[in-house]
Amino acid sequence: MARYLEAVQCLNLIAPKRLPEALKIADARAGLRSLSEGWDSALLEIVFSVPDEQFQWFRLVLRKKSEKYERNYRMLQSRRTLNLQRDGQERRHQQDRRRKPG
Hints:
Largest sheet: none
Order of helices and strands: HHHH
Distance between the termini: 70 Å
Radius of gyration: 22 Å
Number of helices: 4
Low-confidence stretches: none
């Protein structure tokens, strides 16, 4: 693990919600996409500071962490949507019970 210490330190600098953007930058560094303007300069600095010999491992771990973050984020959004729908149904049901005479 000491071999990948710099890459691990770089990964730890990236906030979870920024992982997908960092992955796009890493893909650009790997030559898989073009590096367009408008990227966060701090993320660019982090991704490009990973030593070349550690970069492949960094990108692999970054991809896995990004996928996990996006999966968890989608699940959380789904739960919120379901909870909002359920709460709305419960409120309507309570209002209906109040309206009905004894």
